[in-house]
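can u do me a favor
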């Protein structure tokens, strides 16, 4: 049995930045509040809570700061409310998400109808929509387009979307649009992570996708990997079931691991260590995911 970790697994730049800001803010002020979970990983959010960083969903309940804007961003009206309270505000919004906001304002100002590629219930998309004054449409793979003809239409993507879905949407809109503008706001970290995970899935019998069950980019990884290998989406090592490996008699199989952008290294190491223990593979104490064989 061989176990590999896909390249580019774990924290992306935006998440590292958000975590660092949260830790520094809590250390400086003794506490901090985030608007919703700062990232979509329950274990990391719990660890931050132990350091004094708590999450609040209702901004009306916040009377004192400092307040951290989560990596997914918040609606512009929510930001206005916070600013009106004259609180200390730390903006941990991912720069790629902020870039999508700017593109949304440009497209809206120039009179484009806007189709957002992504999950309309996701915090990132809720925030993105708030920067658009005109009508907004949403599309995900297999959805039906809301109109049969567009004069001027622009596509803006959820940063964790898949480029294949963007191509599908663009091809659908091209013949029914007089003018089509595409803002490819899928972040590069998402793209390279997906490609690395797919390449690994193609040579594996079983893929373990690690990350929050509420994480959009992790769920996308699980969906993509499942097209090539049996795939299990888990958050922690305790979720691993012996039956997943026993069906292969623990011999001559490849197990792949990949992790979402909000998954901390220590969780990846714990899961790798447990898989090795089950497989009877002896490994030394690990301190970095760089010590895990990669593909």
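np, heres the sequence
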């Amino acid at each position: 049995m061989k176990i590999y970790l896909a390249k580019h697994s774990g924290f992306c730049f935006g998440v590292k930045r958000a975590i660092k800001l949260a830790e520094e803010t809590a250390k400086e002020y003794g506490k901090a509040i985030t608007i919703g979970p700062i990232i979509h990983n329950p274990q990391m959010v719990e660890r931050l809570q132990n350091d004094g960083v708590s999450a609040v969903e209702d901004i009306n309940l916040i009377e004192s700061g400092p307040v951290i804007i989560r990596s997914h961003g918040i609606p512009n009206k929510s930001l206005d409310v916070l600013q009106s309270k004259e609180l200390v505000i730390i903006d941990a919004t991912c720069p790629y998400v902020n870039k999508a906001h700017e593109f949304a304002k440009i497209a809206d100002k120039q009179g484009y109808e806007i189709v957002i590629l992504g999950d309309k219930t996701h915090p990132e998309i809720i925030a993105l929509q708030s920067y658009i004054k005109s009508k907004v449409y949403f599309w995900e793979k297999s959805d039906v387009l809301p109109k049969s003809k567009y004069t001027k239409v622009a596509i803006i993507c959820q940063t964790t979307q898949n480029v294949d879905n963007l191509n599908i949407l663009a091809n659908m809109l091209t013949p029914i649009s007089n003018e089509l503008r595409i803002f490819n706001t899928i972040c590069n970290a998402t793209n390279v992570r997906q490609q690395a995970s797919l390449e690994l899935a193609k040579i594996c019998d079983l893929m373990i996708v690690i990350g929050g069950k509420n994480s959009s980019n992790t769920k996308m990884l699980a969906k993509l990997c499942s097209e090539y290998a049996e795939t299990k989406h888990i958050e922690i090592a305790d979720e691993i079931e012996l039956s997943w490996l026993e069906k292969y008699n623990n011999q001559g199989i490849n197990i792949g691991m990949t992790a979402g952008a909000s998954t901390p290294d220590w969780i990846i190491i714990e899961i790798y260590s447990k898989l090795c223990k089950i497989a009877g593979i002896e490994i030394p104490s690990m301190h970095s995911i760089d010590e895990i064989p990669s593909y």
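Residues 2-10+189-291 form a domain with the Cobalt-precorrin-4 Transmethylase; domain 1 fold (CATH 3.40.1010.20). hope that helps!!
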